[in-house]
Amino acid sequence: MAAEMVTGHHERALELLKADAQKILKLIEVQMGNLTMPQCPLYEEVLDTQMFGLSREIDFAVRLQLIDAEAGKELLGTLEKQLSALHEASMRK
Amino acid sequence: MAAEMVTGHHERALELLKADAQKILKLIEVQMGNLTMPQCPLYEEVLDTQMFGLSREIDFAVRLQLIDAEAGKELLGTLEKQLSALHEASMRK
Q1: A88 to chain B, closest Cα gap in Å
Q2: CB atoms inside a 10 Å sphere around CB A32
Q3: What would the pLDDT profile of B8-55 be if each residue is shown by its tens digit?
Q4: Any CB–CB contact under 8 A between A10 and chain B?
């Protein structure tokens, strides 16, 4: 049973991180879809806080050797690209 | 080997969280020891950010069933008491 639990933890950790990343992506998409609306000034603060929270979870998972650093970097990198796309879109508006 | 790895992860998770909590405690103690000095205005912001980061790590560990929620609450609760003691001390200054 224990061997499954070990890989279970690894898979579960990555699953949780991907789910948390997905929540942030949703926030970004909602904002992208509402660019014509008056921007909620706190929106960037909310996204930054969520990104900081996710980066701490990823760092923790890497330190626990539940995921490798590359996987963590990739997860954050994808979100950061979306964030800067959102930022540029809101500048062009 | 796998059974040790499972308990290893549980113990390691709690160890990492305690070490991170210890870092925040150090920050609080440094500030407590320097109350007579002009307060760095960002100090509370730094502590809040660190507490938020730790709470996300704890939440992640609980969701992964690496620690139980009680242990996480206890860890945060201890720090929160220290934080309010610091806050009161700096008010009385």
Answers
A1: 27
A2: 13
A3: 888 999 999 999 999 999 999 888 888 877 767 788 888 999 999 999
A4: no
